[in-house]
Amino acid sequence: xxxxxxxxxxxxxxxxxxxxxxxxxxxxxxxxxxxxxxxxxxxxxxxxxxxxxxxxxxxxxxxx
Length: 64
Description:
With about 60 residues, the chain is mainly alpha-helical. Helices cover about 95% and strands about 0% of the residues. Helix 1 packs antiparallel against helix 2 (about 30-60).
């Protein structure tokens, strides 16, 4: 149960960052040039963390 919650939270974080990036690109201008790369880096880190969480939960689930 805890593993499922961790996976859902990790995926939600990735989705929120992705949506924020889309909004920033839609706004354009100065805001886009300032924030688009920052949000891209955050999304990559969040995706890596989500993959690690999924792999860890899958590994621990296979041990039982």
